[in-house]
């Protein structure tokens, strides 16, 4: 329900998410379209700050990876991808998002 989400949530507060599947509503909509995710970037930058690794890419203007469809008002361009580090045995896992009270 993107129309309600953007009305009720400030842009800076859209993450992390706490999802309770008992509260979910099934909605039928057109498929989400993934465009140009097979396009190789002209340049890629990788930054490791010890806690996360961030990948930023630079694509040709007409090949910028994006998503569209699924009742979205516009297309949304890929910005970056980041990974969080955790310890080897997984005891110190930090998640941004929670589903049914579990991260």
TrEMBL record:
UniProt xrefs under Pfam families:
Carb_anhydrase
What InterPro entries does its record include?
Answer: CA_dom, CA_dom_sf
**PROSITE patterns, alphabetized:** ALPHA_CA_2
The Alpha-carbonic anhydrase domain is annotated at 1-103
Name of the molecule in the record: Alpha-carbonic anhydrase domain-containing protein
Species of origin reads Acyrthosiphon pisum
């Amino acid at each position: 329900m993107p129309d309600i989400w953007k009305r009720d949530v400030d842009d800076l507060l859209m993450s992390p998410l706490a999802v309770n599947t008992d509260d979910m509503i099934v909605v039928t909509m057109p498929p989400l379209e993934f465009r140009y995710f097979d396009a190789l970037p002209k340049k890629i930058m990788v930054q490791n700050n010890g806690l996360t690794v961030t990948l930023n890419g630079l694509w040709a203007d007409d090949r910028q990876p994006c998503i569209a469809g699924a009742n979205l008002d516009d297309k949304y361009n890929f910005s970056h991808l980041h990974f969080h580090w955790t310890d080897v045995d997984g005891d110190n896992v930090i998640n941004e998002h929670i589903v049914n009270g579990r991260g």
